Amino acid sequence: xxxxxxxxxxxxxxxxxxxxxxxxxxxxxxxxxxxxxxxxxxxxxxxxxxxxxxxxxxxxxxxxxxxxxxxxxxxxxxxxxxxxxxxxxxxxxxxxxxxxxxxxxxxxxxxxxxxxxxxxxxxxxxxxxxxxxxxxxxxxxxxxxxxxxxxxxxxxxxxxxxxxxxxxxxxxxxxxxxxxxxxxxxxxxxxxxxxxxxxxxxxxxxxxxxxxxxxxxxxxxxxxxxxxxxxxxxxxxxxxxxxxxxxxxxxxxxxxxxxxxxxxxxxxxxxxxxxxxxxxxxxxxxxxxxxxxxxxxxxxxxxxxxx
Length: 307
Known about the structure:
Layout: E1 3-9, H1 15-31, E2 35-41, H2 45-55, E3 59-62, H3 73-81, H4 90-97, H5 99-108, E4 116-120, H6 121-126, E5 134-137, E6 148-150, H7 157-163, E7 169-174, E8 179-186, E9 189-198, H8 206-210, E10 215-218, H9 225-241, E11 247-255, E12 263-270, H10 280-287, H11 292-301
Parallel strand pairs: 1-2, 1-3
Antiparallel strand pairs: 4-7, 5-6, 5-7, 8-9, 8-11, 9-10, 11-12
Helix pairs in contact: 1-11
């Protein structure tokens, strides 16, 4: 029986999401016939390494989210230990987590991304860095943590800069009206396009993503067939542009306010898609005929180490 160590928890702002993902994955892996050992990651790295050594896993299932879990840090530890692990390797994980670096790679690959600026907190506090509406987001966070939309009449800009806790710079880019779309990818195969309707927030923010009833997922998305096909193609191309492996999820904005087919914009690529009851990748996998235990088994079977 294949021994699988499931890493979950962690020390990022997405710890609670990771705990939920890990619990779901442990149950699914056991249902699929694997010997799954839970290992909760904390700030004690030595304890984590010791737990992995004691478990003697054949594969590590990485259910961590956010910093240290999907930015190349834990991937480096697992590389050092010579352990195969799920999802993307060190280089791709690091690139995807750094939105500035990822967008540079996407642009070089000819993918539809928005122009953006990196601004200091002093610059943001002093004046608008671009015409409103625009989006302010951390360079290296996931799950829409720290994302703000500033529209005409919104006076939160100085407050956002003063309370910023995501480094010394922020990324700003044009706000695109319309819909929020997402596409899951398994290696070189795009699964489907989901249209996300955020109910808990003004956009698909943290609450909309993870609160029960926070959002509605329309699967498959009811958009123009040409736009649907383009989203599938761009998601796979983005996966390849960063050198990803295993499962990823590409997030888009789709501006159909002037009719169909609309304008598709790639926002980011997630190398550690959520695996909670409300998560998008498991929904899309099930839609294509792959139930959750089979999805987790696929991830284990495609685990490896190396860049």
